[in-house]
Structure formats: C-alpha cells, structure tokens
Amino acid sequence: MLVPLALLSLGAIFAGVYFYDAFVDGNNETFWAGAIYRAAENHVLHDRHNVPEWVLYAPLVVTIAGFLIATFTYYFNRGVGKRVADSGGPLHSLFYNKWYFDEIYQATFVKGSAMLGNLFWKADKKIIDGIGPDGVVAVTKASAGRLSKMHTGYLYHYAFVIIGAALVFGGILWLRAGGAN
Predict the structure, then answer these.
(1) CB 22 within 8 A of CB 31
(2) Distance (Å, whole) CA 81 – CA 94
(3) Are the C-beta atoms of residues 45 and 24 closer than 8 Å to each other?
(4) What are phi and psi of 157, to 5 degrees?
(5) CA distances from 69 to 63, 65, 75, 96, 98 (A)
(6) 115-128 confidence digits (pLDDT tens)
(7) What pTM was estimated for this model as a whole?
(8) Distance between CA atoms of 90 and 110, rounded to whole angstroms?
(9) Would you give the end-to-end CA distance of the chain in angstroms?
(10) Residue pLDDT, tens place only, 79-102
(11) pLDDT tens across 5-36, in order?
C-alpha cells in the first residue's frame, strides 16, 4: 500500500501546484464557468492571504512534530507502546477504544435509526396493513367461516334456503308491483 499511496500523494501535490491558479487565483472565473456561485461581496478567497503567517505553517509544523514524536517514541524507543498499554489509564482507554466513536455512533445513529424504523414499521403494520390487505383478509375469512356453516351437505337444507329466498324475493317483487292495493 505504501507505493500506491506515495504515487497518489505525489500526483495530488503536483496537481495542486499546477492547477492552483485555475482553481483558486487568477483564472478561477473562467475555469469554474459559473459552476460555483460567488457573491460580489464575498472576499473569502482573497482574505485567506491576510491571515497571520503562523496559521499558514501550523499544519506543517504539527505534522512534522507528530511524525518526529511517533518516530522517536515507537522506532527508537521500542516497547513504549506495550508499557503504556500495560499501565492502562483513561488516556489509554480513550485511544484503545478509538475515542469511543463506535459506541457513540451505535448509540445515536444505529439505535436511533432502528427505533425510527421500528416505529414506522409497526405503524405501517397496524394502520396501513391492518385496514388494507390484512383487514380485508380478516373480514373475508370471518365471512367465509360463517357462510361455510350453511353448507351442511343435506339436500333439504339447500331446498329450504332456495325456497325461502324465492319467497322473500317474490314478496319484494309483489310489493313493488302494487301488492295488496
């Protein structure tokens, strides 16, 4: 991985040097061609030159200092990492547990998303499915259960139902046609 990263970093450095004027200074209006909106009163790009000089060099100094400290601590002073780990302490716990980033992420985003998902899923199951497909199925099953009790298999039951239905519908037609008048 060291060789590809070195090649990528060299490419990024030289691309930054070569395209600096196009991206930031001089020709940036023609380069971006209106892709980035800049208000006329926005002077952020030019005000970056007016910061104190220590601000410009602070990232470089911190990077070099971190590299030197890490080199002297772990390369020239072998075993210091094991001694620090064996001593424990809150700083070791913080670094060993990756600043508790995973635990914080789990507690906020993962559990929060799961809670919202469960809430919406249960609401969907009770309200939408309960009224919609599941409700229709429940009513159909209940109706079919009641109607299936009418099917006894006896011929005289079916004859009674057919004769009864004919009498009821005949009576309705007789009443509509004028009936007893």
Answers:
(1) yes
(2) 14
(3) yes
(4) -65, -45
(5) 10, 6, 10, 19, 20
(6) 999 999 998 888 88
(7) 0.39
(8) 26
(9) 104
(10) 887 887 888 888 888 888 999 999
(11) 999 999 999 998 888 777 776 676 677 776 76
